[in-house]
Amino acid sequence: MVLRKGKKNQRYEIEESPNIHLLTVLGIRKGIEVIIQSKQMFGGPVVVRAGNRSIAIASNVAEEIKVREVV
Questions:
Q1: pLDDT tens per residue, range 27-56
Q2: Domains in the chain, start-ordered, CATH in brackets?
Q3: CA of 28: how far to CAs of 21, 41, 42, 48, 68, in Å?
């Protein structure tokens, strides 16, 4: 599944992400767990919490981040 299709307040582990330096610097990389805080309407960003940091990820980038649900 891709991050953009995830559910709010659900925990996901990143399985694959695009090779974008800023994502890596912000802590969005393979193996990291994130929680979707909000998904903006009309193609707006997906806001995730990774550790103690909230990060807004553009919708088109969130479509490229593959995740799996953590139970």
A1: 999 999 999 999 998 989 999 999 999 999
A2: 3-69 (2.30.30.90)
A3: 10, 22, 23, 10, 14
